[in-house]
Structures are given as C-alpha cells and as structure tokens.
C-alpha cells in the first residue's frame, strides 16, 4: 500500500520527476561510460603486456634476473615442465634460452635481451607472431633467423633480410658474436619493448652460447588471469625452492598497481557523480514535501504513523533513483556493447597512447559486478539523501500543516 | 453522565505565550455522550477550530484535560496519540483533503490499510461505506473528477472507515453549495440515527445549525450557551 502510494505520488509532478530521472540517466551513463572507457584502456594495456611480454607466470632460477648470467639456468627443467603440464589450470607453457647482448648493424648498436625460442611452441604463450608488421614469423629464412621490433629496426636501419650481429658472452665468459638475418619485424603496443627484445631460434642461441640444453626461463599461461596466484601457489609448493616463481603482477608491479588503483578510482569517480545526483534528489524531495505540506498533515491527522510517512518519502526517492539507474544502465550497456565490439578509434591521439602501451582503438568494457555494485550505491545514496527531507516531513505539525494553504 | 465518551475539563489554550499571547480557549468544560449530533457555533476567531483540534488530539492544551473513553489524551506521547487517533477518531476537513492520487475507494480503504487490515476486507468496507454516502457510481474516480459535495462525502466515508468512536468535522459544509450541504447533512444524520455514529462539527451555516440536535455556542474561547433540542 505504501509502495503504491509512493509510486503514484511520483507521477504527480511529472515534469519534475522526469527531469530528475533524466539527470540520473545522463549522469550515470556519462559516469559508467567514462569508467568503461578507462577500464577498457587499462584492460587492454594489461592484456597486451601479458600476451606479448610477461605471460601469466614466469619461472627462473633465483637471482637470474639480477644479472642475466647464463650459467644460472633451470637445472632439471624437464621435471619442472612435467609438473607444469600436470596442472589442469595451465593452458600452455614454453621454455626459453635468455641472454643479454648488443645488437649491431652498420648504422649503429643497441642493448637487447635475446630470447631463444621454439617458434611453434612459442605461439601457445606469446602473441608476438600476431604482431608481425613486416616479413614473417620465422618463415622463409633458414640460417640464423631473427625477429626484431620495429623500434630496433629503425635504430639499426634494418629491414627484412638485413644482416645484423648479436654480441654476447658465452658460458665460459668469452665475448662471442654471430650474424643473424631479420626474418620478421614486430610491433607491440609498447615501443620500449620493441626496442629491447629480439627472438631467435633456441638451437641457434645454444650454439652461440655454447650452452646446449640450457633453459633460463619458463613462461606459463593459465586458463584465466584470475587463477595466476592460485597456480603459482601450486608451483611453489611442488617445485624446487631454488626457483623464482613470479606472476605478471610481480614481474610488472606497476601494471598490478594500475589495475588495483583504477578500480578504486572508478568507485570514487562514480561516488562523486552520485553525490551530485543525490543533491538533485534531495532538492526534488524537499520540493515535493513543501508542495504537499497540507496533505502530509492530513495523513498524520488521520493516523498515518511517523514511520510510515518516513517510509513513504524514502520509497519515493528510491523509486526515482531505481528508474533512473535502471534506464541509465540499460543505456550504458547498450552503448558499451556497441562501442565495445567495434571499438572507438582514437588514432588522432596515437602518439600518446602508444607510449602508454595501448592501441589506438579502445574497447570500453565493464564487469557485471561493477553494475551490481553501482546499483547498490545508487539505492544507498537515494536513501541517504532523502533522509533529511523525510525528517523534515516528520517535523511537520499536523495542525499547522493543515492550516497552511 | 455515565455514557460520556468525551469529557473536557478546564480546557485552556494560549498561543505564543512568550511573545504576543493569543488566548484561544479560556476554560471550556464540556461532556459529550455517545450518539450525539453536536454543532459547535460561534463567530470567527472564537476558538471553534482550536477546540476541535484539542478533542482530536492534534494540538495540546495549555491547561485542563481532554478525556476520551477514560483516556486522558493530553498525557499520551506523540506515537501513541497517532495510533489513538487512527483507532478512535474520524476527521473531516473543510477542504475535503483527499489524497489526489488515489480513487475514492482507495482513499477510504487507505485508512483501514494503515490499521493493518487485509486488502480484501478494506475494499469491501470501502465499497459499503461509499454506497452508504450515495457514491456507489463514483468509487473508481479520483477526487479531481468529483464535485466538492461528492468529495466531502468520500471524506465522511473515509472518516468512518476505521470505525472511530466519533467524527470531528471542522466546517464540513463551508465550501459546499446549499444542495450539497443538505445532501451531506442528510447522510450524516442518517448515519447518526442508524449507526449511532457521534458527530461533532463546527459551522457558521444556519441551516446546519437548525438540523443539529445539540448546539454549543463558543464566544471568546468560552461556552456561551449549550442548547439541546
Ligand atoms: N497556531 C496559532 N497560532 C496563533 N494563534 C492562533 C493559532 N491558531 C489559532 N489562533 C488564534 O486563536 C483564536 C481562535 O482561532 P480558531 O481558529 O480556533 O477560531 P475559529 O472559531 O475556528 O474561527 P473561524 O470561524 O474563522 O474558523 C484566533 O484568534 C486565532 O487567530
Ligand atoms: Mg475555524
């Protein structure tokens, strides 16, 4: 009965109710869409980094990452591989030979990290093959092929089929060098990565380093990003304690921070919008009560209890918020799924976005959980902001209220 | 005076006692029995509305007491008072004061729903009451679609809905034309006779005064004359 009365009261001043509902719709849609856009941006940066750089989990011998000393290899890597393979949550893994060195051409040189990979296996874990912009991923050149990033290619003035030299130290500490021929040039969303990482075949690097069979890095991809920690824990309990097992969050802590931080920023951002909308609701309800002073007096005179009067007003504003929020969310979801599949082209700002590590096309996205959280926040703020008007109504003296015109 | 349902003793009301005091009631003693049909009459500003508000527990006396069915209502706290009003007193206001968003039937049923009665029961009684005030045809109309007289009859039906001990009406006919006034009065008299409903109302209208069975004259916040016919 209270529900019905509150609902009907809502439509007494249609213009006012519609105005506040419309402002809730627009405010929320604006907020949700901005959040989705920003979230799409972060997610894209994260997935780019995971797909092309970190994978979900990496395993090294302890201290290897301190100096990249190739003698610090993973000893019994076949056993390690077996443990990894047995975990049902693992989607794929690869073993790599890693060294640091100097890449030189006639036009210059640049420090790089060289990865010796098995091209076919590598595709299970890394999407570098998908980011080739010139040449092919280890196809077409038999002897010493190398895949390098666009930035490095520019620096070395190298093209596909150009010959470049990798200088490094072998297992005994001797300076060694070998010529490689560029087979493919990749471009990820991070130009820093493209400048400092090169990929060669495992056996070629073994030969150069005189370290046949050495493995320095195992990269693992799990079924779902959220499972990274759980899978890592499993590895830690089963594998040799001399191994360093890290998730992408530990490998690139700044990415992890960004992903955690952004969620808090979203809620804060939405909270500000809700406060603004809350004052709109407050104002609307105060006006509604002011207009209905006499009627509320009559209700109290005929025996409507204070708690019911209070409830009626809270319900009215909750209805307003619910209608606005529902419509706002429908509009946002439509907008997000529409732009989310085709993306928003921001190539006008290309330069800035590239150094941020994302593409020029942004795909807005949001989790279902966020909508639920938001709905809850909207209802809460509607209730919160109608408490004052509701108290104001309770303070009315029936006699005075009825005397008023 | 065994069957008095209302006992008023030494009732005084002073508005704004600290600034410019207005002495609205200056010692009213009055007893009202069940089944009476009383008109409170007096010049403007004499204190009729104030007196009715005191009886209805809408306002609290400065001095004296109001006792209804053995309960001193000036001693109830505001929560109990609201509940008391809901169960014991029916109100009719000069300007009808129906809820504009509800239909006639819903307006009447609403008071019963406030008492926590089942919807079905409320609807049934609302229909009976509206039939009793001659509005069986207009039950599903909203107030805006009804004439003033019809709205006031809905208000009487609403006042009766909670089966109160008595009905208080402050100038119920002041906004009505003479035809509506006499229709409303006939209904009130009929309810009074057949259902033994007690009516206490204030009025300026001579035709209404003529039909009352007891007339209490209030002048300057005091009872000037108490006339039974
Ligand atoms: N809330 C109030 N504050 C101050 N004075 C008041 C208040 N209510 C009533 N009064 C004064 O008390 C006196 C009695 O008022 P009341 O409304 O009871 O008169 P009434 O007999 O009903 O008059 P009318 O016939 O015009 O309705 C008047 O002088 C009025 O101005
Ligand atoms: Mg009056």
Protein topology:
The complex is a heterodimer of chains A (405) and B (229).
Chain A: H1 2-10, H2 14-54, E1 57-61, H3 64-67, H4 77-86, E2 90-105, E3 108-117, H5 119-122, E4 132-135, E5 145-149, H6 150-156, E6 163-169, E7 175-186, H7 191-196, E8 197-201, H8 202-209, E9 217-222, H9 228-238, E10 243-247, H10 248-251, H11 253-291, H12 293-301, H13 306-342, E11 344-345, H14 350-356, E12 361-362, H15 368-394, H16 398-403
Helix pairs in contact in A: 1-13, 2-11, 2-13, 11-13, 11-15, 13-15
Chain B: E1 4-15, E2 22-33, E3 37-41, H1 48-55, E4 63-68, E5 71-72, H2 78-88, E6 89-92, H3 104-114, H4 119-132, H5 148-161, E7 166-170, H6 178-195, E8 198-203, H7 206-211, E9 214-219, E10 222-228
Parallel strand pairs in B: 3-8, 3-9, 6-7, 7-8
Antiparallel strand pairs in B: 1-2, 1-4, 4-5, 9-10
Q: What does this protein look like?
A:
The complex is a heterodimer of chains A (405) and B (229). Helix content of chain A is 57%, strand content 20%. With 405 residues, chain A is an alpha+beta fold. Chain A has 2 domains: 2-49 and 256-403, no CATH class; 63-241, no CATH class. In chain A, helix 2 (14-54) crosses helix 13 (306-342). Chain A is elongated and about 100 Å long. Chain A starts with a helix and ends with a helix. In chain A, 42% of the residues are buried. In chain B, a hairpin with a 6-residue loop joins strand 1 (4-15) and strand 2 (22-33). Chain B has a single domain (36-58, 77-228), classed as P-loop containing nucleotide triphosphate hydrolases (Rossmann fold, 3-Layer(aba) Sandwich), CATH 3.40.50. Classes of the chains: A alpha+beta (405), B alpha/beta (229). Chain A binds chain B through residues 1, 5, 8-9, 11-12, 294-295, 298-306, 308, 398-399, 402, and chain B through 53, 56, 58-59, 78-79, 82-83, 85-87, 91, 93, 97, 99-102, 110-111, 113-115, 119, 158-159, 162. The structure holds adenosine-5'-triphosphate and magnesium ion. Magnesium ion (MG) binds next to helix 1 of chain B.
